[in-house]
Design brief:
Number of domains: 2
Order of helices and strands: HHHHHHHHHH
Shape: elongated
Helix content: over 70%
Strand content: under 5%
Number of helices: 10
Radius of gyration: 23 Å
Amino acid sequence: MNNSSRPDLSERSILLLDGCVLAFAVLVMAWPGLPAPGSASGQLCAALGALLLLAPFVFVMMKRSGLAENPPAWFIVHVIATSLGSGLVFIHAASGDWLTPPGLVLALLLFLLVQGSLIRVVLSRGFSLLFARSSAAHGFTAPPGLDRKALQQVIDDKVDLLKRLDSNADEALFSPALKHWLRQPLSSLRYHRLAEREARLVGARAGAGAVLAWSRRIHMLAALAFYLGLIAHIIVVLFFAGYAARGGDIEWWHITAWGG
């Protein structure tokens, strides 16, 4: 397939979407008369928003499992669903108290929106431009001081290991997917470490690549914290409604009122 025909979101579109979400968050916080978080409409917004915010998790699973035939299309779904879901969650929480544990979950959501855009628009683009400049200037020649013998040994080890992981894959393009980690975790870990060592040996682009890699890891950890916080909030309001109400009336649909 021609890369030019692949669906994608431009940097401008990503920034515009994030700007709209952040502006909407500020607007709903200042808007009087919005429904209470525990009202029927408030709960509906929360439920729909939470479902839409599952799209990034599905995107990661599809991408890492190798099941996604069109990762860019899944990325578009990820961005749009996150934007819509965030808007609904902000409506749900607007008239509530943001200086609470659920408020921390909202803060994580805002962080993910902003940091995700920076990764996509600034870091990923800068890394691509660095590769392009290196290609134009050196034609992908070896950087000064490269230990060619060590690099060749790493590549040979990767090729040998790839025969066990995926004999049909190309060493230059292969990265362990979820299915490889589940079936052969030790071999996948060894291959991952070899790839990291190869990146360190290349050196010329390793600095920019390390920043991008660590930024993505922080994004994934923040996303994990957000999902855990979201699950904890759902459990509390459904099963520990008495605790969530802080001695007041429980105005929302719940299963049990433990903690009252």
